[in-house]
Specification:
This protein is α/β, with parallel strands linked by helices. It has helices at about 15-30, 45-50, 75-85, 95-110, 210-225, 235, 270-275, 290-295, 305-320; strands at about 1-5, 35-40, 60-65, 90-95, 115-120, 120-125, 125-130, 135-140, 145-150, 165-170, 200-205, 230, 260, 280-285, 295-300. The longest helix has 19 residues, at about 305-320. Bound molecules: flavin-adenine dinucleotide (FAD).
Length: about 325
């Protein structure tokens, strides 16, 4: 049977998380002849469908271009997915805010167990997923007739570009959900790379001491490296950094090529969000800080001295190059 992947987008652009979830879907469907259909639901989504149709591994793109799906609300989207579910034994979405909103509803409507945030595919019905803030890895074998799966995208590579596959309209049915509607939204706008897909992240913790010091110390280094900025929950709770910068169990899960943790102790809840980073650099004045246990490179010292030094060294290096 085929696999259905629910595409994550904002009616303007396709989220990179979908391209990573597609890699997971391709591993699940690793048998000759298994088709993977990408469902793009929204309004004015032709360009997104065309972009999705060029992702390697997709067999077909289904488009539900309808005002009911404009706001990405879980209720109509889940109803759509369930109405299409007969043709699929596996329904997959990236574990983004949207995927985590819609898939539990899909699982409940199908009366199956959701398998959340898989990080490894062992076979079509068997998956690995982290539990206890990433301190243990559980192997789950599904016995349900259908599987509703979310994918922890930091564990999978981006699917490459492939030949364009057919784009066809999806049958959308009559479902209506007047009980829920989007009233308003406030979107954080930033010139920086998106935290979840950035190649480099510079993150600050409680040690920064204030929002002013956070901005004066972390931001210049992040700017120099073209990095996204992250923060520990302690830094966010203290108001040093905005909420959407929080990395960890109750924040964002990131796996950049380089993660620089500055004045962050390395509590398990923080590690749960960044320990899959390719290279971890920790700067902390306490040589016993747990962050050093996961760090590839550690600098023991005062971040208020080390970070400006690092920034100056990088500045003179780029001046020498140019
Ligand atoms: C249910 C739950 C969910 C949670 N979710 C998250 C989450 O998603 N993300 C998260 O981050 N936390 C989360 N936490 C909180 C977590 O347990 C820690 O409290 C938090 O991560 C600590 O943040 P911190 O490392 O910035 O602060 P601290 O633990 O106080 O560490 C500060 C560090 O800075 C060092 N330091 C101090 N001054 C300097 C200096 N001048 N130079 C260099 N180093 C210095 C210290 O040695 C220390 O190691 C969660 C907790 C719970 C209970």
């Amino acid at each position: 049977m085929a696999i259905l992947l629910v595409v994550d987008h904002d009616n303007t652009s396709l989220s990179e998380q979908t391209a990573k979830a597609l890699t997971a879907a391709s591993l699940i469907g690793d048998e000759a002849g298994t088709e993977i259909h990408l469902l793009v639901a929204g309004e004015g989504v032709t360009a997104i469908a065309e972009r999705a149709a060029r992702l390697a591994g997709a067999s077909k793109v289904l488009v539900a271009d309808d005002p009911r799906y404009t706001d990405g609300l879980a209720e109509p989207l889940a109803a759509l997915v369930v109405s299409l579910a007969d043709g699929y034994d596996t329904i997959v979405a990236a574990a983004t805010s949207s995927g985590k909103d819609v898939m539990p509803r899909v699982a409940a409507l199908l009366d199956v167990s959701q398998i959340s945030e898989i990080t490894e595919v062992l076979d079509r019905v068997t998956f690995k997923r982290p539990v206890y803030a990433g301190n243990a890895v559980q192997t789950v074998r599904s016995t349900d007739a259908k599987r509703a799966i979310t994918v922890r995208t930091s564990a999978f590579a981006v699917a490459s570009e492939g030949p364009q596959v057919p784009i066809v309209p999806a049958t959308t049915g009559q479902h209506q959900y007047p009980a829920s509607s989007l009233v308003s939204e406030q979107l954080a706008k930033s010139e920086r790379p998106d935290l979840t897909s950035a190649k480099v992240v510079v993150a600050g913790g409680r040690a920064l001491g204030s929002a002013e010091k956070f901005n004066a110390t972390i931001i210049p280094l992040a700017d120099r490296l073209g990095a996204a900025v992250g923060a520990s929950r302690a830094a966010v709770d203290a108001g040093y950094a905005p909420n959407d910068w929080q990395v960890g169990q109750t924040g964002k899960i990131v796996a950049p090529d380089l993660y620089i943790a500055c004045g962050i102790s390395g509590a398990i809840q923080h590690l749960a969000g960044m320990k899959d980073s390719k290279v971890i650099v920790a700067i902390n004045q306490d040589s016993e800080a747990p962050i050093f246990q996961v760090a590839d490179y550690g600098l023991v010292g005062d971040l208020f001295e080390l970070l400006p030094e690092l920034e100056t060294a990088l500045a003179s290096r780029s001046a020498t190059k140019s």
